[in-house]
Amino acid sequence: MFLDEPHTGDVFPFIANLTPCADLSSSHDCDRITSLAFYPDGSPNYLYLWPDSEKLTALQVSDNSAQTPPGSPTPKVQTSGTAVTGTNTHFLSWVIPGDQLVVSTSPTATTLTVTGVSSDTSLTAYQSTSIGTATAFTYNGYLIKPLYDTSPNGTAVQYPGGSVLVTSNSGSGGLAWGMASLGASPPGGGTVLAYDAGTLALKWCSNPSCSSSPATFNAPVFSLPTVVNGNVYIPTFGITITGTLPAGCPASPCSGLVWYH
């Protein structure tokens, strides 16, 4: 993915998934997302996305200035090839693929461009100079400090990932909405979820378990929910009402609408 910086014309590439192309068996699933959402009234501002086979993600929008990682003792990194090992680091909550680590090497600083994040203490990065001794660093990027949902587990999210949008009540009480097929190969049962826009804490789910979907509705690939005056409208197909097809539907699946309020 790319984020275009309008004032300079620069393009900032970033990878939607923590692990690039995790599903190598299916190239069309590689790092796929279906939509982006932005909440301008949030503080800080976040960009929301929901990659295939991963968790709902909120990325803090930054000005690409250097960030000093907090902690005592001072967080440090060292490298071996493309592998970066950290001590007292929290990579999962600081950086995403595409961000940079600037390491205080002598006589000049060494810049590492993150290509994948494995854990709080390990990641992979492009680099020009090996760093053999644990060294202090800063990090920067246009999108940093990611948040992730805690439910459902990312592995339950089926192709092509979740669709997202954000709503608020006159700029307050922001909610991040997601719609995804969970726990079954698509076309799978659709699930609608609402999260606190500032924390991604789950506020509401359209099915009891939020890990797999009952056959309430089928979620069309690439579709978005629509929220109007507190009502959520979901496009669907093959909808059933008390076990039967709606009046006028042929034997094959037909289109429909699910409405939550």
DSSP helical segment count: 1
Note the overall shape.
elongated
User: Please, what is the average pLDDT?
Assistant: 79
What number of structural domains do the residues give?
A: 2
Series of H and E elements: EEEEEEEHEEEEEEEEEEEE
Strand elements, count: 19
- Indicate the low-confidence ranges by residue numbers: 1-7, 243-253
Instruction: For the record, give the distance between the C-alpha atoms at the N and C termini, rounded to a whole number.
Output: 34 Å
Strand percent estimate? 35-45%
Q: Report on the biggest sheet.
A: 6 strands, antiparallel, barrel
Helical content stands at: under 10%
- Which structural class fits the helix and strand makeup? mainly beta
Spatial extent as radius of gyration: 21 Å
Q: Describe the strand arrangement of the main beta sheet, using strand numbers.
A: 6-7-10-9-8-11
